[in-house]
User: Fold these one by one.
Assistant:
Number 1:
Amino acid sequence: MKVFDKGKYSVRYAGTAEDMSAGLDLRRLCFGAAGGVPDRFDTSSVHVLITEERNDDVVATFRMAMLDGSRIQTSYAAQFYDLAALEAFQGPMLELGRFCIHPNHPDPDILRMAWAVLTAHVDEAGVEMLFGCSSFSGRDVDPYGDAFALLKARHLPPAQWMPRIKAKDVYRYCAQDHGKPDLKKANAAMPPLLRTYLMMGGWVSDHAVMDHEMDTLHVFTGLEIKAIPPARKKLLRALV
């Protein structure tokens, strides 16, 4: 089902087997073979495709699943993080997962389109927190030293929501002394989705998980909707 068009892009919910296959193909390209394999979280999620209007090529995809604090332990992220603290969160929550943009389409308008449809979904469902796992490519921490140092310095969560360590293989960047981060290097190394989360008032876990299956490093990321600046909300809503 088409959601909206803007410029040369179109957004729709995956409604056919062909749609799902196209989304999985992009996931496989971005995350490797494991990313293209459907999992149990796919069946309980709404899948979004962003396509080029001229040829219907999929340039971005992600999935969304509604939860609340009482069901936070059934989320994808709960496989890797101890989210017991978030059981106390009052209000609807939305888990965003498998977000990826085609590497040959670095157009920032694609990310804007994704946030526009997310904003519409948040408004419609009364969501009060977005969360998910923000992925850094590969499992080598060295290229991301400044990025992790910046997360440690500026973007940790309120104490009552702090995710605790659950995964076996983690990088505890809050236990490292990297020194003052180089902001230019930090922002260049940060995944685009995570940068946007942080610009809106989002926060991250104090450690990264080394996901061997997906060949990524990821950090739990949360964003309380009330923390988003009103001017930014207005801009996002204007896109739909």
Number 2:
Amino acid sequence: MKTLREFDDLNDKWALVRVDFNVPLDAAGNVTDDTRIRETLPTLHELSRLGARIVLVSHLGRPKGHESKYSLAPVAKRLEELLHAPVKLASAVVGEEVSVEVDALKKGQVLLLENVRFEEGEEANDPAFSAALAALADVYVNDAFGAAHRAHASTVGVARRLPHAAGLLLQKEVETLLEVTQMPERPMVAILGGSKVSDKIKVIERFLGIADALLIGGAMVFPFLAAQGHSVGNSLCADEDVELAKTIMGKREHHGAKLILPVDLIVADSFSADATPVLIDGVDVPDGMMGLDIGPKTAAEYAGWIEEAGTIFWNGPMGAFEMEPFAAGTKAVAEAMASAPGTTVVGGGDSAAAVAQFGLAARMNHVSTGGGAALELIEGRQLPGIEALS
């Protein structure tokens, strides 16, 4: 993968930079979590130092055509605050007026194009649209790890038309995740949560082959418990996931990792913040109840594994952490990682949201900006946006 060092001279040249500013907004249109914007600042500062004229391209949400609620105007405002420098929002993505705005840029200045998904050609990786984007710049930089698993015009098409390189964020993401899977400090502990085994089957199998211990949390535990003959009540548990769990458990003697499941649970009679949490000492969920978090014994056991690990990778919450009565298990894992002496890597998605919610993100060695891309990279897949930079 080519990096910024590949460019001999960026002074006075236009750099088209693909960033991932797909950030959450509140009802008033304010950015509520600017992590992804902040993580691109090192790349933008470096390009500015090198004298480049910076044209940013990003998507936001899944608009159907030009929907004003998906405008990048709030993002431009927040980026301007973080850079302490003007950031102009272009009138569109491509076109004559945009070309004039791009040409007017001076060294070190930043222009943010409108939401690239306003254009039909983006997700189709349309050659004509790719060429129109490429015509705006002299070089292309991809710093959007969260979109690297998409073969779109702004992640693949442009890279084929311009001298290209990975930005500092994308480079850091790839190097960190490859180190976790290829050269981890031992013991290596992986913690996986979430709702469905089928969504993470390849990640589970990968970690069973490379980790020393695989800790399971979230609704994913229930197919494994059902496969062992335990009752799961009304917990989320699809039949296909139970069969996958049986297959995984049948193969585990061929893997090096220990598969660790909860020993106690927090259950309730409904998926609601108003539901009364009930602790059960064991894992058989009563009829009419559903499991919504790991219990304190499990949290303590998982914390023990984390404390002794040389490398810890975490993706997926331990329970319904977005509801305060069922957040304790996820918070316990986050706190254990924040205090762990080993290398801690949070694999984006809900886990990244959790550590941010608990104010612990800064105490992790790495918090990925791309949940889906991170998991696909760990699975061993080729990510189109990264492959295009080789």
Number 3:
Amino acid sequence: MRMSDQVIHIIGGGLAGSEAAWQAANAGVKVILHEMRPVKKTPAHNTDGYAELVCSNSFRSDDDEHNAVGLLHYEMRALNSLIMREGGEAAVPAGGALAVDRDIFSAGVTKALSEHPFITIERGEIEGLPPEEWGNVIIATGPLTSDALAQGIQDLTGEDELSFFDAIAPIVEADSIDMDVAWMQSRYDKEGPAGTGKDYINCPMDEAQYKAFIDELLNAEYGLFKEWELPSGSKSLAEQEVDTPYFDGCMPIEIMASRGIDTLRFGPMKPVGLIDPRTGEEPYAVVQLRQDNALGTLYNLVGFQTKMKWGEQSRIFKMIPGLENAVFARLGGLHRNTFINSPKLLDENLRLKVRPSIRFAGQITGCEGYVESAAIGLLAGRMAAAEMLGKSFDLPPQTSALGALVSHITGGADAKSFQPMNVTFGLMPPLSKEEATVQYETTAGKKKRAKLRGKDRKRAYTVRAKNDLRLWLDQVNG
């Protein structure tokens, strides 16, 4: 086959697959992007658009000086990320975070991919493993990998357990929220992309209201897992907590509540940094709602992923002060997420060791979060394109967020205990003594060094990462 006739087949049109297609096509390589929707639907998606967000609408912190996720945003923008570009175009107010109107965002990604001259869109399920004649493949099927493909991967790799569970938070119509009770404020009045410092709706609870709410959560009726989600059959909430491998970053609210009376008050319902203007005091607990669309007509309950039956959700969530008359545009749910043991199965270029023509990208690799998934898609697309063009690919430095993330999932993590992971400074090499300290002069005129702490220490990581990434980009583009 002539080089000009070769293509990269990318399976999955989520964030990772979309980003991989964009990066590979921009490198001058032909791409066929396979997406089974709408020919075959999933339990969580509502549209046939690319990069549809099925859980939160937040890409989390956009602070590239003190936050690892914000640093990842910065690095992806430096590499011409489609996901970050369209995220910026679809941004809605969210304090220090980057949150998007999910419809505008998906429409922007879909338009960009559909109009790219090097990308061909093909709709329909890839049943089982891709054909051997596809010499360059990226599997980016994400949380809802089809049963046939998941089974093919399982048969090929010999792994027995590929699933955990992600949860979806409810969405409320904004004009149904009682703003005589609730108020607008970001935690610590922090501003961010498209924000003003008053970007969240806050619903306060006193101690009695909080304890009554927890009691109802613990005694609510919960929907049964579908057979495809929980092969061992229907289980009680207590049994599900023991047996279901939930990811802590997307824990159902009822599971958190079952772990102790104050768990939610130190988690998604923490009142720290929020002052009720009607009392001038910090409430006992707070439920926050974040804008979910550009019009500001929809707000999602932050951290309120749940498996409660829909009737129970409506009843119990209307106990929240300010939400007594809430109209729910969408209620919560729980869905399966599929990932592989990447440290064991993949090489440093995200290729499957037993079949190197196949790469993996996105959540299926065991990276957790929208931005992390897209970041691995970005790297997979560039790696696949470089291979197609007969070029070498130098990995980004491990001191960068991109390098730290890909290094973690391809060998940095312990394969025996591997679980999905968000990007953190903890994935990066420790700071050197010089980087981790600051020199100062004493009143006696002597020079001493003190350890950096808090934000100063985090900023040292981001400064180092940006400098190293810049050098890497100069080398790549040189």
